Amino acid sequence: EEVYTLHDVSELAKAIKNMNIRGSGAIGICGVYGILLAALKSNGKKETILEAATLLKSTRPTAVNLMKTIDEMVSVAEGSSEDIVEKVEQKAVEILKRQLQFEYDLGAHGAELINDGDTIMTHCHSGALGGSGFGGRALSVIRTAFEQGKKIHVYTCETRPYLQGARITAYELKKFGIPHTLITDGMSGYFMNQGYIQKVVVGSDRVAGNGDLANKIGTYNHALAAKANGIPFYTATSSHTIDFFTKSGKEIEVEMRNGDEVVYLNGTRIAPEGTHALYPSFDITPNELITGIITEIGVIQSPYDRNLKKLANNNPVTI
Ligand code: RUB
């Protein structure tokens, strides 16, 4: 287990940017506590809080939780400096509790879709309650199904270049005692086609108003393979990840990371000197490939533009 001690907002921003902390839910909560840290360290100085908000929001552009939770924190930073510290602190606790509750609730809704005996594939790391991060949706579904006594098996798909499926998901699955098998990005089509996998459940960094979703690079390929093989493909996420300001996946900003992260593996160069490499951190899965969006309120299905709006109407935190 890696433990980081972060002393100020700039160290936190660096840890998010460098992906020491990663996953949409986890970075959202870190944004919240970053604002609290700024408030505490500056004794409630609004200007410092706004600077912290700008810095933290600039770290990773795709996951919308980070932006939304920071905006929510900043919105309560009004009044005297003592008021600001108190309100920001209360809000941080409220958001953390809410996020955990969302994960329990969406885990329960998602677990209903899982049958006894299913093998479920997940991609990258969308961790579970009590796992290594506060965020985490796909494993909340898987863990809830397992705790209900369903005999399930998980194919955890490792993602290049950060290998989260192996490094974090397998770690969490082991911790929860859930049987699992590690595969790598390019193997999913084979295993789906050969009948090994009955469901795919992934997380999301942002869901557009029409249901298109951004998630870790490779997700789109899995969704295509799932469709071709008649396998249900779900995303598990909270309503906080749905962004109605983004009408479709075309409008989602996909973070392009440094190609060196592909060329080097654990600090060792694995491609010839001068090799050009690209690294879009996420891809966009169009709504027609998605069987359902598992949220804390229930499982949303097509037509997404209409049904996601219903969710927004029932739940003001969505917007
Ligand atoms: C992680 C990733 C995860 C989503 C959902 O990307 O794409 O699947 O963030 O995770 P990165 P969660 O490693 O680049 O941050 O459900 O935990 O929010």
Keywords:
7-stranded mixed β-sheet; Four Helix Bundle (Hemerythrin (Met), subunit A); 4-stranded mixed β-sheet; 319 residues; Rossmann fold; 11 helices; binds ribulose-1,5-diphosphate; alpha/beta
Layout of SSEs?
Elements: H1 9-17, H2 24-41, H3 46-57, H4 64-75, H5 81-111, E1 119-123, H6 138-147, E2 153-158, H7 164-176, E3 180-184, H8 188-193, E4 199-202, E5 206-208, E6 213-216, H9 219-228, E7 233-236, E8 242-243, E9 256-257, H10 260-263, E10 264-265, E11 268-269, E12 279-280, E13 282-285, E14 292-294, E15 299-300, H11 304-314
Parallel strand pairs: 1-2, 1-4, 2-3, 4-7, 5-8, 7-14
Antiparallel strand pairs: 5-6, 6-13, 9-12, 10-11, 14-15
Bound molecules: ribulose-1,5-diphosphate (RUB).
Residues 19, 22-26, 63, 124, 126-127, 133, 135-137, 164, 202-205, 215-216, 281 line the site of ribulose-1,5-diphosphate.
Overview of the molecule:
By secondary structure, the protein is an alpha/beta fold. The protein has two domains: 9-102, Up-down Bundle (Four Helix Bundle (Hemerythrin (Met), subunit A)); 106-318, Rossmann fold (3-Layer(aba) Sandwich). The protein is 43% helix and 16% strand. The strands form four sheets. A seven-stranded mixed beta sheet has the order 3-2-1-4-7-14-15. It has a four-stranded mixed beta sheet with strand order 8-5-6-13, with helices on one face. Helix 7 (164-176) links the parallel strand 2 and strand 3 (180-184). Helix 2 packs antiparallel against helix 5. It starts with 8 loop residues before the first helix and ends in a 5-residue tail after the last helix. The protein binds ribulose-1,5-diphosphate. Ribulose-1,5-diphosphate is lined by residues 19, 22-26, 63, 124, 126-127, 133, 135-137, 164, 202-205, 215-216, 281.
